[in-house]
Amino acid sequence: xxxxxxxxxxxxxxxxxxxxxxxxxxxxxxxxxxxxxxxxxxxxxxxxxxxxxxxxxxxxxxxxxxxxxxxxxxxxxxxxxxxxxxxxxxxxxxxxxxxxxxxxxxxxxxxxxxxxxxxxxxxxxxxxxxxxxxxxxxxxxxxxxxxxxxxxxxxxxxxxxxxxxxxxxxxxxxxxxxxxxxxx
Length: 184
Prior knowledge:
Elements: H1 2-12, E1 31-41, E2 47-59, E3 64-75, E4 81-91, E5 97-108, E6 123-133, E7 138-141, E8 145-149, E9 152-156, E10 158-162, E11 167-171, E12 175-177
Antiparallel strand pairs: 1-2, 2-3, 3-4, 4-5, 5-6, 6-7, 6-8, 7-10, 8-9, 9-12, 10-11
């Protein structure tokens, strides 16, 4: 009777879980968004950023988001608007790094003069590739770029712009045109 009870317990006991074989890593998106807009607000309800595109794909193995015909708009605490557009964008999970590919344009709108601060003209970066670091307010490119600041215009083979330190490094064949009477 004891043997029969033991046999019955072993037969009806749950089986140990079998090891699940690892699935091969593939570059397949786990979700899509078509003709979308995503808005981000701060705690007070002020719009911080707006991202739009015709198609977005999320890749879980790299936790990246790829967006076609992207248009990004952000508003800083002082009210300055920055707009970025490109044929395609690739962003990391938290949006702190965005790579813009094909007809990439980043535009910072002008800031009027305030007491103790000079006016800042409109600034625009153009190129086939721009790499934006949103948390540190940097824009880099290892490909040819054109920078327009007010009426001044510069071209270079590569660049590194740090908005917080207000430093622009142009490398390679650099050409510039500074018009007289332009506010710097």
